[in-house]
Each structure stands twice: as C-alpha cells, then as structure tokens.
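Customer escalation, tier 2.

The customer says the design service returned an amino acid string that "doesn't look like it belongs to this structure." They asked us to rerun it and document both sides in this ticket. The original structure tokens are below, unchanged.
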C-alpha cells in the first residue's frame, strides 16, 4: 500500500500519533482514496476545530506544492469531507476562440483565490454536460475526458464556520465535482470515457504495480 507506515497513506489517522503537518499526497492505489469520507463534526455555533484548521492548512500546502487547482482530504490520507480549490482566472485566447475564465462571471468559472469547502453538498446540475480532460494529483500521468454537468450549485461550510451556497460553471464547477467525487471514494479512472480508459491502461497498470511493491512516492 502506498505510504503505509509513512503516515497517512493507509488512511487511518490517529491524532495521538500523527501531526497533520506530516501528511502528504496519497497516490492510487490506496484504501483511503476509495472510502466514503466522514462528515466533519463542527463545534458549538459551527466552530471549526483547530484540528480541522491544521488539516486544511496542510491540504493547501500540498495543493500548492503539487501545483493542483483542487485537493480533497483523502488525498492526504484524511477520510473527512473537506476539499480546497484554487481555480485561477484565465484571460483566454481570443484568436483561438477561447473565452476568458473569470471569478466575476455569473455564474463564476474561477474561484476568488483559495476556497475551503467543509461538508459540501452539490445540487441542481445544469442540463448541459460536457467532456473535458482531467488529471488528478493522486493519479500521476493519467489524464482523460470526463463528462460532467457544466453548471452546479454547491452548499458547504467555510473555514469561518459559516454556511454558504454558490453556483458555479466551467472549470470551477468541474473542479467541485472532481473533488466531491474524492469524498465519495470515486476517481477519474471510474468516470473517464472508455477510449481514454483504454489509452491509460498501461500507465494505470504501472501505477498499481508500484503500489503493490509498497514503493509509495516521494
Ligand atoms: Zn483528484
């Protein structure tokens, strides 16, 4: 198993022993990536515990270090319903017919910097769904097209303990759905188009062989 004995990879986090700062990216195959995550228990008045704050801080560090636009808690070995996103704005390319991606669009297609989602719920998928190529920090070198609704609504608790609801589109909505899947133990290899699954078969087999050897990564 990836990272077994190294803290976090096996997925059973014992706070008496482990410091969130020691948690690192978990690579497929790993049980924690396949388990349905537990809701975060909030304190009185929705207070977010110091432990959850520490987990989030580490998630942000790992996301930045790995240059991701999103990261879910199981990806650092924590089986709790938390994800972070940072979907940058993009000016687009007028000549190539690429529209800009903005946090100010209605609904937004980028995040307003770093955003934290605790116990998120996704609802009201738009009627339109599109394929788009996705990657995943837990599946290095694997990329494939996944069909998802282009617009969804998300409700969650922020790091300040306040509930919020927002609607998003484009890459932001896609990122939410990708990260939400992680909380359900679902990976892009389960969802990608058949042709892309076949294309990635060899890389996936190599990754799974690495895992079996207990080599871990990094
Ligand atoms: Zn992912």
């Amino acid at each position: 198993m990836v990272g077994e004995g190294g803290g976090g990879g096996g997925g059973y986090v014992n706070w008496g022993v482990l410091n969130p700062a020691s948690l690192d990216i978990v690579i497929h195959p790993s049980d924690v990536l396949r388990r349905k995550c537990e809701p975060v228990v909030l304190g009185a008045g929705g207070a977010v515990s110091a432990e959850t704050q520490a987990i989030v801080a580490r998630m942000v560090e790992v996301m930045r270090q790995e240059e991701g636009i999103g990261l879910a808690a199981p990806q650092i070995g924590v089986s709790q319903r938390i994800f972070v996103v940072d979907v940058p704005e993009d000016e687009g390319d007028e000549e190539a017919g690429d529209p800009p991606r903005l946090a100010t669009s209605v609904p937004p297609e980028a995040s307003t910097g770093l955003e934290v989602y605790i116990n998120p719920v996704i609802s009201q998928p738009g009627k339109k769904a599109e394929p788009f190529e996705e990657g995943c920090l837990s599946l290095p070198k694997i990329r494939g097209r996944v069909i998802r609704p282009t617009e969804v609504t998300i409700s969650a608790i922020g790091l300040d303990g306040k509930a919020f609801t927002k609607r998003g589109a484009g890459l932001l909505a896609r990122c939410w759905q990708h990260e939400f899947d992680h909380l359900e133990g679902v990976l892009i290899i389960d969802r990608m188009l058949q042709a892309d699954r076949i294309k990635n078969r060899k890389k996936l087999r190599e990754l799974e062989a690495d895992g079996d050897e207990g080599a871990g990564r990094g």
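Tier 2 assessment: The sequence is consistent with the input. Confidence is low (pLDDT under 50) at residues 1-11. The chain has six helices and seven strands. Sent an explanation to the customer and offered a walkthrough call.
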